[in-house]
Amino acid sequence: MLLAIDAGNTNIVFALHDGEKWRGNWRISTNNHRTSDEYGAWLTTLLEKQGISSKQITRAIIGTVVPAALYHLRLLCRAWLDLEPLIANSRSNWGLGCKVDTPDEVGVDRRLNGLAAHHMFGGPLVVVDFGTATTFDVVDAEGAFCGGAIAPGVNLSLEALHQAAARLPRISVGRPTSAIGRNTIVSMRSGLFWGYVGLVEGIVSQIKAEMKTPLAVIATGGLAPLFSEGTSLFQHVALTLTLDGLRLLADRNPSQNAIDRDD
């Protein structure tokens, strides 16, 4: 089985793929001080509850936008799984082009989303990822990554609003019952929800105008189902898109066998 590790700014997702389907999907908050042994003990416990032995994991791949997390995640694979993980980066064999000025600067999650979306839906298309940042990733008909846009994420904006305005409370994200709020909380929810719907529709409209071709629009990220309710923009909501990108990249770049303990 393949262990795919998607390390983002907010959460790290660990997922197992048996060659046909995802067998497990677990997340833990991103903490740069967490050690490989903490990850290992946590992951082993979860595997045991699913009746899965760590010996069944024969490959591993790590994709991260948090460089500080990489050391202990790599050590987790080496010390707890006897595997040398593949690290997703600009030097990997993507099999598809990257039409940006500096490929090394592109967050690997964005390229993984593009890789998986093109494999699943063809192209051209744009992926909207509702994560810590809200990203817009453009892929052309041949599958090449063409860049996109980056906006503050929904929760990041919500926290900034609370921190900067003394009388505004910290609220949860949700679809408001009305655009016209009759109290502070509903007003904040309305501004956030419909504001982001407008932001997404506006940026995608501008991308389509610049690409001068019809584009499929794919939503991913934890808040994708919520915001897809507020617009007819999205043709697909694909919640495992980044993980599917890791799986596809691992297949393109066969990982090493169990590491040599004499090294």
Structural description of this entry:
The chain has 263 residues and is of the alpha/beta class. The protein folds into two domains: 2-87, Nucleotidyltransferase, domain 5, CATH 3.30.420.40; 103-246, ATPase, nucleotide binding domain (Nucleotidyltransferase, domain 5), CATH 3.30.420. It is built from seven helices and ten strands. Helix 2 links the parallel strand 4 and strand 5 (86-87). Helix 1 (36-49) packs across helix 2 (67-81) and helix 3 (108-121) packs across helix 7 (241-252). The two termini are 25 Å apart.
Summarize the structure.
By secondary structure, this protein is α/β, with parallel strands linked by helices. It is built from seven helices and ten strands.
Fourth CATH level, the homologous superfamily of the largest domain:
ATPase, nucleotide binding domain
Strand content: 15-25%
Question: What is the tally of beta strands?
Answer: 10
Strand neighbour order, sheet with most strands: 3-2-1-4-5
Give the averaged pLDDT, no decimals: 90
H and E string? EEEHEHEHEEEHHEHEH
Q: Return the structural class.
A: alpha/beta
Instruction: Choose one word for the global shape.
Output: globular
Count of runs of 4 or more consecutive helical residues: 7
CATH architecture of the largest domain: 2-Layer Sandwich
CATH topology of the largest domain: Nucleotidyltransferase, domain 5
Helix content: 25-40%
Largest sheet: 5 strands, mixed
CATH first level of the largest domain? Alpha Beta
Rg, nearest Å = 20 Å
Number of domain modules: 2
What is the terminal separation in angstroms?
25 Å
- Low-confidence parts, pLDDT < 50 over ≥5 residues? none
